[in-house]
Design goal:
heterotrimer; A alpha/beta (about 325); B alpha/beta (about 140); C alpha/beta (about 525); A: about 325 residues; alpha/beta; B: about 140 residues; Rossmann fold; five-stranded parallel β-sheet; 5 helices; 5 strands; globular
Chain lengths: ~325, ~140, ~525
C-alpha cells in the first residue's frame, strides 16, 4: 500500500477538516495532524504543502546535551520564561525508540509537569529509527506548530550520543547543556557537538566545578569554530534549572541570536538536504517494507549459514531495486 | 511502525508505581510508544496530555481507591472534549465488583493481578489498532 | 509438574545442600550477643515478656478517628504506636488541595495543623509508649512536641521514631516535590535537633522497608539503606555534631519478606556491618553507637489479593523470622493489605499473631537462638559481604545527588519493579495462590468481604480546613511562615521555626510550600495554590 494511493478502507484522513481546525487553533486538530504526518499517512505531503506557505514565523530553539544534565528541567524553565515574555510556546521532546522492539518510553512530561497551567503545547516524539537526535518527522512537526501560531518552539533532542547534529538544521539557535564535574562531559562536547552550539549552558552551576567547566568550554571555543551560523559568537552561561537561576540570561542570549527577518526560510542547501532525506526515507519504506524487499532478503538467507553479505548486496541491490521500482511505477500508473 | 501510543498515569496522590513502571516496560518492549505521565495526575492533566500527545489508549494504574472517584470525572471530561482514546485500568486493588462498575462507566478494560502479559498486550494492541484505524493513522 | 525451589536465595546467593564447620568463618565464632560486632543482637538478655515492641500500622480518616484506633489497639495489648499519614499529608499537601480530595484519610490519617496533632495524640502516654510515625519528619517532630507541650509531657521524655528516606522517597512512592538538597537538609535538621532536645527519640530511622517494596532483594535493600545512612552521618558530622551524640539513636526499619533464613541473615549482617562502620570508619566511641536498633514491617508486597487467609500465614512466618533475628519492634502487614490499610479485624489478627509468638511459642526466651547454625552464620557473612560490595559500587558511581538528578536511582528502582513482576509472571518466584495453586474466583471468598470494605475519603476535612484557614489570625501565621522562609534560605535548623509556625496555625502544606520557595521551587508544584505570603 503506497501512501500516495488510496488508504485502508478507501477514505484517507480528512485533511481539509484538520487544516481548517488548525487555522481555528484547535489543539486536537493540531495533535492529530502531527500524528498523521508522523505516520506518513496518505496525502501527508499535500497537507504539508498546504501549510508550508503559513510557516516561517516561529523561532526554533534546540536543546541538546547528555542525559542527566537537567536538559528537560531547563527546557521547561525556558518555556515559562518565554511565556512570561508574551510568546506562544510549544515543546517537542524527542526520546529514542528501542532498536529491538520499536517501542519507546517518553518520559519528558514528568519533568515538565509544571508547564500544565501555562498552556504550553508539549508533544513527545519517538525517534522511530532515525539517528542524529531527532525523529524523521520532527521538522514537519515544527512547521505544523509554526503554522498553528506558536512563535517559540523548543526542541529537546534525545541527548544520548555525540553526533546529534540534526538539530542544527532545524533550530535557529542551539543550546548545548552540560554540567560541572564531568570531565568526560567536556570530552563529549569536544568530540561531536562543539560546533553546533550557539549557547553553552553549564547547568547545575551551584555544584562544585562550575567555573572550571565554563573555563574548559571557553578554552575549547578559542580553538574551535563555533557560532555555527556565522552570526554572534558562541557564549557560555551558567544556570540552575531546578531553581530557575540564570534562566533569564539564557533566554536573552537566545533572543539576541534569533534571525531578525519576519519570515524565516530555509537556505537552498538546507532544502537540498531535506529533500534528499525525504526521498531517502520514502525509498527506504517503499523498497524494504511496501515492496517487500526485506521479506525477500530474509527468504534468501533463511536456513543458510554460508551467505556472503557482499555477494548478496551486489546481486540484490541493483537487480531487486530496479525490479521493485518498476513494479511500483506500474502500480502507480494503474491506480492513476 | 509503532503499535500505538499509550498514555500511562496514576491518579491523585496514589504513589505506588510498581505496576505502572512494569507495564510501561512491557509495552515498550512490544513496540508501543508509552507517554509516561507518572504520579500526581488528575482528569484535567490526563485530558490535556491525551490531546497534545494524540494517544491511542489511556492507561491508569491504580494502587489506591482514588480511581473510584476520579473515573466518573474523567470519562465525561474526555467525552466533552471528543477524546476517543479508550481508557483502561490496571491494579490489584480493583475488585471484581469495582471492575463491573468501572466498565459500566465506560472503562474499556480492567486488568487485575491475575492478568497475564500476553493478554494485556493482545488487548492493548487491539484497542490501539482500532483507535488508529478510526483516526486514519493506521 | 513439580516445582523445585531455586537453588539460590531471593538475593541470588547460591546455596548448597547443607552447611558444616567448613562454612563458618572461624573468626566469627567468638561473637557474643550484646557485644561488638553485635551480629547476635544488641542485648545479652531477653526480657521475660514483650521482648519486642508490638505494634500494628494505624491511622485512618481524621486525627480523632485515628486516636480511637490507637486506644483500641492499646486496649488489646499493643505496646507501641505505628502511625501512617495519608497520601496527601505524605506528599505535603493540605486536605483542601484539589489533588488530595479523593484520598483524604483513606490510606492513613489526614494531618495538617496543630489541632490535628493534638487530637491524634490525646490520651497517649507519650513518655511511656513509643510512637513510630511514617510521616515526613520535619512535620511530625514539631507536631509531637506541640502535643507533648499541650498534654504536659517533657520534650526530652518523648519516645518513638520518625522515618527518613531523603534519597529514594521521590522514586519509591513517598514523593514530596522537594528538591534533593532540601530533603537531605530537612533530615539532618531533625536529626541534629533531636540529638540535643529529644535524647530518647529516634529521629534517624533509615526506612529501608518503604523503598524496598519496589521489588528490591535483601542485599539491594540494605545496600541502598547503608548508602543513605552513611551520607546522612557525614552530613550531620559536618555540622559539628559529635557522632556519639546521635549514632545511638540511629535505627533501621527493614522489610521482611518470605525468604526465611535470608531475612534473618540480613538483620544479623546489618548489625555487624553497622558496628564495624561506626567504630572503625566514623570513629564512634560509645558502644551504644555501634549497636544499631533494627525494627521491621513485614512485606506488604509479599501478600496476595488471592486467597487472603494465606496472608495471615505469611505474616506469621515473617514475624517469626524477625523475632528469631532479634528485631526490636515488629509490625505485621495484615491480611487485607492488598486492598487497604488494616481493618479492625485484621489489626487484631496481626496483634494476636505477635502475642501468640511472644507468649505461647517461647522462642523469645533465648537471645539469637540461631547463632552458631552453620547455615545461618554462613549466610550472614555472605549477605554482609554482598551488601558491602554493593555499597562500594554505588558510592563509586558518584555523589548521591548526582545519582538522584541523573535518574540513576530512578532506573535502579524501575529495573527492580520490572524484575519483580517478571519473576512472578515467569514463575521464577512462586507465590501460592497467585502463580501456583490458584483457586477459581468463586471459591476464593474467605475474608474477602472484610478485606474489600472501603474507607470513604474524609472529605468533610476540605471544608473544615478551608474554614480553619479563613478564621485564624493570619498576621501571626504569615509572620511565622515568613520566618520559616527566611530560615530555610539560611542554614538555620528548621525544627524550631516549623514548630512555631504550626503553633501559629500554619498548615503542613503551607510550611512545605515556603520551604520549596526557599529552594527556588514553586510554592505548590501543581500550580493550584499561591503562596499566602
Amino acid at each position: 500500500m503506497t501512501s500516495e494511493g488510496a488508504t485502508h478502507g478507501g477514505t484517507g484522513p480528512e485533511w481539509q477538516v484538520l487544516l481548517s481546525g488548525l487555522r481555528q487553533r484547535d489543539r486536537r486538530a493540531l495533535s492529530r495532524f502531527i500524528s498523521l504526518v508522523e505516520a506518513r499517512a496518505a496525502g501527508w505531503q499535500d497537507a504539508m504543502h498546504c501549510l508550508f506557505a503559513e510557516t516561517g514565523r516561529a523561532r526554533v530553539v534546540g536543546v541538546t546535551g547528555s542525559l542527566g544534565t537537567g536538559k528537560s528541567t531547563l527546557t521547561g524553565r525556558l518555556a515559562v520564561e518565554f511565556i512570561e515574555r508574551g510568546h506562544a510556546v510549544a515543546i517537542l521532546a524527542v526520546d529514542p525508540s528501542s532498536p529491538f522492539s520499536g517501542g519507546a518510553i517518553l518520559g519528558d512530561r514528568i519533568r515538565m509537569a509544571n508547564l500544565a497551567p501555562h498552556g504550553v503545547f508539549l508533544r513527545s516524539m519517538a525517534t522511530r529509527g532515525a539517528h542524529g537526535g531527532l525523529s524523521r518527522a520532527t521538522r514537519d512537526a515544527v512547521r505544523i506548530l509554526d503554522a498553528f501560531g506558536f512563535d517559540r518552539i523548543l526542541i529537546e533532542t534525545v541527548g544520548a550520543g555525540q553526533d546529534e547534529i540534526d538539530i542544527l538544521r532545524v533550530a535557529d539557535v542551539t543550546l548545548v547543556v552540560s554540567m560541572p564535574g564531568q570531565g568526560d562531559e567536556v570530552q563529549a562536547i569536544k568530540a561531536g557537538i562543539m560546533e553546533i552550539a550557539d549557547v553553552f549552558v553549564v547547568n547545575k552551576s551551584d555544584c562544585a566545578g562550575a567555573d572550571q567547566a565554563v573555563a574548559d568550554i571557553q578554552a575549547m571555543l578559542r580553538v574551535t569554530k563555533s557560532g555555527a551560523r556565522g552570526g554572534a559568537p558562541a557564549v557560555v552561561l551558567k544556570s540552575v534549572a531546578t531553581t530557575g537561576s540564570g534562566v533569564r540570561e539564557v533566554v536573552e542570549a537566545i533572543q539576541s541570536r534569533l534571525p531578525r527577518a519576519e519570515i524565516r526560510r530555509s537556505a537552498p542547501n538546507e532544502i537540498v538536504e531535506e529533500v534528499v532525506e525525504l526521498v531517502d526515507g520514502r525509498l527506504h519504506d517503499v523498497f524494504w517494507n511496501e515492496l517487500g524487499a526485506r521479506q525477500r532478503l530474509r527468504e534468501r538467507v533463511s536456513g543458510r549459514d554460508d551467505v556472503d553479505p557482499y555477494l548478496l548486496f551486489g546481486e540484490f541491490f541493483p537487480q531487486d531495486l530496479v525490479r521493485a521500482l518498476l513494479a511500483a511505477a506500474r502500480e502507480r500508473r494503474t491506480s492513476d | 511502525m509503532t503499535k500505538g501510543r499509550v498514555l500511562l498515569a496514576m491518579l491523585g496522590t496514589d504513589q505506588h508505581e510498581l505496576g505502572a513502571v512494569a507495564i510501561a516496560g512491557l509495552l515498550r518492549d512490544h513496540g508501543f510508544e508509552v507517554v509516561y505521565l507518572g504520579r500526581f495526575q488528575t482528569p484535567k492533566t490526563i485530558l490535556q496530555a491525551a490531546i497534545d500527545e494524540d494517544v491511542d489508549v489511556i492507561g491508569i494504574s491504580c494502587h489506591s481507591w482514588e480511581f473510584l472517584d476520579y473515573v466518573p470525572e474523567l470519562i465525561p471530561l474526555l467525552g466533552e472534549s471528543e477524546v476517543d482514546a479508550p481508557v483502561v485500568l490496571g491494579g490489584s486493588v480493583i475488585t471484581a465488583e469495582d471492575a463491573l462498575a468501572m466498565k459500566a462507566l465506560g472503562i474499556a478494560e480492567v486488568f487485575d493481578s491475575d492478568a497475564q502479559s500476553g493478554a494485556i498486550l493482545d488487548r492493548m494492541s487491539m484497542l490501539a489498532a482500532e483507535r488508529r484505524a478510526r483516526a486514519g493513522i493506521g | 509438574m513439580t516445582h523445585r525451589p531455586a537453588r539460590t536465595t531471593r538475593s541470588g546467593i547460591p546455596v548448597k545442600d547443607y552447611y558444616d564447620a567448613d562454612d563458618w568463618r572461624p573468626a566469627d565464632r567468638g561473637e557474643a550477643p550484646g557485644a561488638f560486632p553485635y551480629a547476635r543482637g544488641r542485648r545479652d538478655h531477653a526480657p521475660p515478656v514483650g521482648s519486642w515492641i508490638q505494634r500494628e500500622l494505624s491511622g485512618e480518616g481524621d486525627a480523632k478517628r485515628s486516636n480511637q484506633q490507637f486506644l483500641d489497639l492499646m486496649a488489646h495489648g499493643q505496646t507501641g504506636l505505628d502511625i501512617i499519614c495519608d497520601g496527601p499529608s505524605g506528599a505535603l499537601m493540605d486536605p483542601d488541595h484539589p489533588l488530595a480530595t479523593h484520598a483524604i484519610g483513606t490510606q492513613g490519617v489526614s494531618v495538617c495543623h496543630k489541632q490535628d496533632f493534638l487530637d491524634l495524640l490525646q490520651n497517649i502516654p507519650l513518655d511511656r509508649i513509643s510512637v513510630s510515625a511514617s510521616f515526613p519528619p520535619l512535620f511530625f517532630v514539631p507536631g509531637l512536641c506541640l502535643a507533648a507541650r499541650a498534654y504536659g509531657f517533657a520534650i526530652d521524655a518523648l519516645r518513638g521514631s520518625t522515618v527518613l528516606n531523603p534519597f529514594y522517597s521521590e522514586v519509591s512512592g513517598l514523593g514530596t516535590n522537594l528538591p534533593f538538597d532540601a530533603r537531605v537538609r530537612l533530615s539532618c535538621d531533625v536529626i541534629e535537633f533531636c540529638s540535643k532536645a529529644m535524647p530518647r527519640f529516634h529521629a534517624f530511622v533509615e526506612d529501608t522497608y518503604f523503598f524496598s517494596e519496589s521489588g528490591l532483594n535483601a542485599v539491594e535493600e540494605m545496600a541502598l539503606g547503608f548508602v543513605e545512612i552513611r551520607h546522612l552521618v557525614r552530613e550531620v558530622q559536618r555540622r559539628g555534631v559529635d557522632i556519639d551524640a546521635f549514632a545511638p539513636r540511629i535505627a533501621i526499619l527493614v522489610n521482611c519478606g518470605m525468604e526465611f533464613f535470608e531475612e534473618i541473615a540480613k538483620i544479623r549482617a546489618t548489625r555487624r556491618l553497622f558496628a564495624r562502620m561506626m567504630r572503625d570508619e566514623f570513629g564512634a566511641k560509645d558502644p551504644r553507637s555501634w549497636s544499631v536498633i533494627v525494627t521491621s514491617h513485614t512485606s506488604g508486597l509479599s501478600l496476595t489479593p488471592q486467597q487472603l487467609p494465606n496472608n495471615i500465614v505469611r505474616g506469621t512466618i515473617q514475624a517469626l523470622s524477625l523475632v528469631l533475628a532479634g528485631a526490636h519492634a515488629v509490625e505485621i502487614s495484615t491480611f487485607d493489605e492488598p486492598y487497604r490499610t488494616p481493618t479492625p479485624e485484621a489489626h487484631l489478627v496481626g496483634l494476636r499473631t505477635q502475642q501468640i509468638i511472644d507468649l505461647e511459642t517461647g522462642i523469645a526466651k533465648v537471645v539469637d537462638p540461631l547463632g552458631g547454625s552453620y547455615f545461618v552464620e554462613w549466610l550472614t557473612a555472605e549477605t554482609e559481604k554482598r551488601i558491602w560490595e554493593m555499597v562500594v559500587d554505588i558510592e563509586g558511581r558518584g555523589h548521591p545527588r548526582d545519582l538522584n538528578d541523573s535518574g540513576w536511582f530512578r532506573r535502579f528502582f524501575d529495573d527492580r519493579m520490572r524484575r519483580y513482576l517478571q519473576e512472578i509472571e515467569q514463575r521464577a518466584r512462586l507465590v501460592v495462590g497467585m502463580n501456583i495453586h490458584k483457586l477459581p474466583p468463586e471459591k476464593d471468598t474467605l475474608l474477602r468481604d472484610v478485606s474489600q470494605r472501603k474507607i470513604r475519603p474524609a472529605r468533610e476535612r476540605v471544608r473544615q480546613v478551608k474554614e480553619f484557614k479563613l478564621n485564624r489570625d493570619f498576621d501571626r501565621t504569615g509572620a511565622a511562615l515568613r520566618k520559616v522562609l527566611e530560615a530555610a534560605k539560611t542554614t538555620h535548623n528548621l525544627v524550631p521555626v516549623v514548630t512555631d509556625a504550626f503553633d501559629a496555625h500554619a498548615t503542613l502544606g503551607e510550611i512545605a510550600g515556603v520551604v520549596r520557595m526557599a529552594y527556588g521551587e514553586p510554592f505548590d508544584p501543581f500550580g493550584e495554590f499561591q503562596s499566602p505570603i
